[in-house]
Design brief:
single chain, 45 residues, alpha+beta, 2 helices
Length: 45
């Protein structure tokens, strides 16, 4: 199992621009609200 983590990966493909934009837009729309002892995750879309 350790060998799997120490080998260098041959995967060097860059993520697509659409994927990057999706993640950025999602993170902009995500709000985390803390109220007393609870935490709420709100997606604003």
């Amino acid at each position: 199992m350790m060998k799997l983590y120490t080998e260098k990966s041959s995967f060097k493909e860059q993520p697509k621009q659409e994927t990057i934009q999706f993640l950025l837009n999602y993170s902009k729309a995500l709000r985390i609200v803390k109220a007393k002892s609870k935490t709420f995750e709100l997606h604003l879309n």
